Fold:
Amino acid sequence: MKRTVVFLMLLSLWAVAPAAAAEKTPPAPSAKDKCPVCGMFVAPFPNWLGVIVYKDGGRFYFDGPKDLFTYYFAPEKYGSARKRADIADIHVTDYYSVAAIDGRKAFYVIGSDVRGPMGKELVPFAKKSDADGFLKDHRGQKVLRFDELTPATLKSLE
Structure:
């Protein structure tokens, strides 16, 4: 009897886990949501969408990872009273799957021949192998992780 109860409890946790994970992904932007960095409407660019979600539930959408990181490094420049410590989640869009992925765990290719809505772009991937393949196929310069991105990296994309 105890084994049956334990099994049912584990089964119920397994069934709920995907739903809990899905809740972390923010809703799609509305037609009115604009990138706080460049002012472009973001809904027309779902393949490049980035989102910063704050602990209080507030969120900002971006038309690409480059603008997301531009904001991330200097939110006060864009009128935000919030700090980096207030950020709960960062999502970017995987280039191949076009799925929202954790921006802190992503692999970013810089210097490729692929352009985003604002020109040269950081191209995000969930898998290192995808980033390496893309780097080779699209003449990228380097694959970087979240903690390796700097304002100087963004400057090199201008």
